[in-house]
Amino acid sequence: MRTQVCIIGGGPAGLLLSHILHRAGIDSIVLEQRSRSYVLSRIRAGVLEWGTVTELDQAGLGERMHREGFVHDGVLIAARNRAIRIDFKALLGKQVMVYGQTEVTHDLYDARDAMGGRVIDEADGVTLHGLPDRPFVTYVKNGTEERIDCDWIAGCDGFHGPSRQALPKSILKTFEKVYPFGWLGVLSETPPVADELIYANHDRGFALCSMRNEHLSRYYLQVPLEDRVENWSDKAFWDELKRRIPHDAAANLVTGPSVEKSIAPLRSFVAEPMRWGKLFLVGDAAHIVPPTGAKGLNLAVSDVHYLSRALIAHYRDGDDHGVDHYSETALARVWKAIRFSWWMTTLLHRFPDQTEFDQHIQAGEIDYLEHSVAARTVLAENYTGLPF
């Protein structure tokens, strides 16, 4: 087979890149290791920056998002049984959209199908060859090895995919911070406890109250890394959540059986460069953020924004400026999001080695947020998304 861009990874980054390129007349093939049903069953984040909303709108993908998603004008930061509201709309005239990553992926698969996009699921043993200058990709489907010749490879295959591993160790630099706790997440078919997200700093550990829709809620508790899901009954989870969120929210909390329960570790990770010859790294293949700042999917979309426009300029105008500068352009935004997610994580969690000094610093930061318009504006600017 032959294509202009071989995209490795059929998550939202790979599908969105394929869709935007298709609309510009650029051919691509998407290779996904898992089945479509598996990809669509993954539970992921649900807060979209308005830049992400705009990108999806411009790609013709926003109809169901605007019909079923929830526009939020602010967010609540809770500590010492008080909630501070960060009013995005009043501070910046901006908003965010609560619309699950799974729903975005559904919309992208539907759009790819409607346009006849080539998405090959259950592609095993994906291997990159001929880099940096003469790329081709091999994979196994139904026991037969296939080959795709291409102009470019876009590695949208996540943290564990083969794309980043294809960069020589002499070129690749990685930066990582592993946090000493995880998030125990529960999905329940219950109404959200509040109209906006609640991020809670508590002596017993962090908690987050989020939602997917009017009848589906997502809640998280900070837990030790060595903890296990089996240690948490539904009752134990709800009881602990009520302890960590403000009393008025706890009184309004509707509990029910968990639909899904899992523990996720937290890390910050960046790989540089994000381009080597004809290979580009996109999304989680190049960077991971702790979910505290709601930046993972949004960073993937900003990478797609830069790369799609670079490739369109290359094919349409013979202009390689965007291609040549993709890595530095994307990384400039990535590191700002890494910083914000680190700051939110540090602000809101209890660390095992935390001293009384550290706790007073946290309290001072939250008090500063409560009484400083400038501090709330900085949080709002980063949370709603820095410009592309």
What does this structure look like?
The chain has two domains: 5-70 and 100-176 and 267-344, 3-Layer(bba) Sandwich (FAD/NAD(P)-binding domain); 179-265 and 351-384, D-Amino Acid Oxidase, subunit A, domain 2 (D-Amino Acid Oxidase, Chain A, domain 2, 2-Layer Sandwich). The strands form four sheets. It has an eight-stranded mixed β-sheet with strand order 6-5-14-15-16-13-17-20. A six-stranded mixed β-sheet has the order 8-2-1-12-19-18. The model has no long low-confidence stretch (mean pLDDT 96). The chain has 14 helices and 20 strands. The chain is globular and about 60 Å long. It is an alpha+beta fold and 388 residues long.
In a nutshell, what does this entry contain?
This protein has 388 residues and is of the alpha+beta class. It has helices at residues 12-23, 36-41, 50-58, 63-68, 88-92, 101-114, 162-165, 234-244, 247-252, 296-317, 321-324, 326-348, 356-371, 373-384; strands at 5-8, 28-31, 47-49, 70-72, 74-79, 82-87, 96-98, 118-120, 124-129, 136-141, 144-149, 152-155, 173-188, 198-201, 207-213, 216-223, 258-272, 275-276, 279-281, 287-288.
